[in-house]
Please model this.
Amino acid sequence: MDVSAAVQELIDRQVGEGHQIGVQVAAYRSGEPWFDVAAGLMGPEDARAVEADSLFLSFSSTKGIAALAVHQLADQGVLDLDAPVAHYWPEFTANGKGSLTVAEAISHQGGLHAMPEPFAPEHITDWEAGVARTAAAMPAYEPGTATGYHAVTFGWIVGGIVAGATGRHVQHVIHDNIARPLGLEDELFVGIPANGDVDDRLTTLELLAAGDGLPIPDDADFYKAMPKAMWPYFNTMPFRTACLPSGNGHFTARALARMYGALANGGEIDDVRLISPAGLERIGRLETDRVDRVLGVPLRKSAGFFLGGLGLDLKGNMVHGPMGPSEAAFGHPGAGGSIGFADPTLGLGVGVTLNKMQYPMPGEGVTLEICDLIRELTA
Model:
C-alpha cells in the first residue's frame, strides 16, 4: 500500500467509527508534496463530502502563521525579537509591561491571558478595541517571570507589534508575506473574505468548548483565557470574517503542510524563501518550558510556536503529542484537534484539519494516530 492510500485508509476508518466527521491530512517531504487526502462530511448537518479545497476553521493552528509573520519581519531587520514590545507599540508600556520583549510576549510570558468578563461577541469581532484593550491591560503577574497561554489575546499582541513595526495590519502582512508567495491566497485566511467568495467551501464545526468535562474551577485562569461563552459563536459569519490571528484561521490541510514543508526544508520551497536559516534557527529556539499557568502543564515553547518532545501523561509515563518526540519539531495545535507542524529532522511538513472537536488525554487521540502513522511511513 502506498503512503497516500495508507493515510486515506486510516482517516476513512476514523470517520466510519464515528471518531471524525470530516478531515483533511496533507504532508510535504523534502520540499515536495507527499500526499493530500480527505474523508467525511463538511459538517454535522452538511452531507457534502469534504474536498481538498474545503476550508476548516482551525483555531490556534492560526498562531503558527501569525508567529511566522513576526519571525519574517525579524529576519528582514524590521523588528528585533529581543527588543521591548513597547519600542514598537508605546501604548503597551501601561501597567508595568514596558520591559517585556517581543519574544517573551509571543511565547506567552506576558501575563495577558485574561479576556473581558462577562464575555460578549464583540470581544472577538472588534479588532481595534482588542488591540487597545491589550495595550492597556494589567498583567496577571510580573511580565517575563511566568508563562500562561495567551489563548485569544495572542492575536492582538501580534497585531499591535506588527502594526507598530510596519504601519500595516497583520492580516495584510500574512497575506503578502506568506499566503501569496506560497500560492495559497485561496486556501490560507486569517479572517475569511466578507464578500462570500469562499462561503460554499466552509466546513462546519461540531463545537466543544475547551475544558468540557474536565474538573476545572469556573474561576480558573483556563476559563479567564478561554471563556465558556465564547465557543458557540465560532460557526457564525461575524466570527469567521473577523481577524483573529490567535484563533480563527481558515485553512486547508495542504496549505498548512506547504507552509510547514518550507520550514522543514531549510525555509524554502519551490524557489520561494520564507525565512533564512538563521531565522529558522530562532523559530526552533526554546524560550520557556515552565508549567503554563493557564493550561496547567509544562509546555516547551519557542517564540510563537510549541515544540515537540516528550511530556508526562496522567499516569506519569513519558509520551509525545502529534508533533512527535523530536525536540526539533515545531508548530501549533488548534482546539479540538487541528494542527500544523514541521519536523526538520524528517524534512516533514504536516497539516491536519478537522471539524469534530475533541480533547483527548496526553498520548491519545485521532490527530496523534494520524501523525504517528505519517512518521512511521517516513521509514
Q: What stands out?
A: Residues 3-210+221-378 form a domain with the Beta-lactamase fold (CATH 3.40.710.10).
